[in-house]
Design goal:
Rossmann fold; globular; 214 residues; Arc Repressor Mutant, subunit A
Length: 214
């Protein structure tokens, strides 16, 4: 049985940026763009199209962009909002206004797709750059110490996020509609890439890296 695609609404003040985001996501497994519009149209389009998630280009975190997040969160409670921001200082404001995820504007396609899928499962995603702005200075880790040699694939990140919720391999397999053997394969790859000896250590390291927040 094939899982339903995540229906994503694209919001950006720039038609060119909207087109670029649609082009990035088209063809990504499990994701389908259902429309797009400007910042002032965000709430009305969400009510009309009923997307599963919204990708919002928040620019440099200008007041009108943050207001758009707040209006969306108020009009559609529980609707995941993944915000792209050029300035890392906007992170706390975007989250406070109702964003489910905050990523750099120059995010790569796989990371963006993984964040959208994660937000639909109720998880908060923040880039390592932005996570640092939320931590006291004494708790910040030098980038050279916290970036693993390899990044996880979108599927591995999905498995990791479900591991963080405490699901067993069988439960993860059921939720992702894949075999338990495949889950074990992904779990092994995750542990290897994070140099972790256990699932708990892998989850702890991923939280420290800012890949997931639970």
């Amino acid at each position: 049985m094939t899982m339903p695609e995540l229906r994503v609404l694209i919001i950006s003040p720039s038609p060119l940026a909207r087109g670029g985001l649609v082009a990035m996501l088209d063809g990504m497994p499990g994701i389908k763009t259902v429309g797009g519009g400007g910042i002032t149209e965000a709430a009305s389009l969400a009510a009309q199209l009923l997307p599963d998630a919204v990708l919002l280009d928040a620019g440099d975190g200008e007041p009108e962009d943050l207001d758009a997040i707040a209006r969306l969160a108020s009009a559609q409670p529980g609707l995941p909002i993944v915000a792209l921001a050029g300035e890392s200082g906007a992170v706390s404001q975007a989250l406070a206004f109702g964003a489910s995820a905050l990523l750099p504007a120059a995010v790569d396609t796989q990371t963006l797709a993984a964040a959208l899928l994660a937000s639909a499962r109720g998880l908060v995603t923040i880039s390592r750059r932005d996570l640092a702005t939320l931590l006291p200075e004494e708790e910040r880790i030098e980038p050279a110490l916290k970036a693993p040699a390899e990044s996880l694939t979108p599927r591995e990140l999905e498995v990791l996020q479900l591991m963080a919720r405490g699901l067993t391999n069988r439960q993860i397999a059921r939720q992702l509609q894949i075999s338990e053997h495949t889950v074990k394969f992904h779990a092994g790859a995750i542990l290897g890439k994070l140099s972790a000896r256990s699932r708990a250590e892998a989850v702890a390291r991923s939280i420290g890296l800012g890949w997931i927040l639970v």
